[in-house]
Amino acid sequence: MTLLIIAIVVGVLALVLAIKVTKLVAKLIFLLIAVALGLAAYFAYQHHQDQSSGPSARPTLSVR
Predict the structure, then answer these.
(1) 36 located within any domain
(2) 27 vs 37: CA distance, rounded Å
(3) Model's pTM, two decimal places?
(4) Which segments of the chain have a pLDDT < 70?
């Protein structure tokens, strides 16, 4: 959970830097970092939700 918070904070900082930087290449790099960290935070949160809910909460498909 701590890594999730760190990823969100660093992603927001990268987004702020992408807005403030004037060079196009640097802007694209910071935007790429922000998007990558945002996706990583999203998937980490989803994984955390799956772990906390446990296997019994998952719906099972029964084929007859």
Answers:
(1) yes
(2) 15
(3) 0.56
(4) 1, 48, 50-62, 64
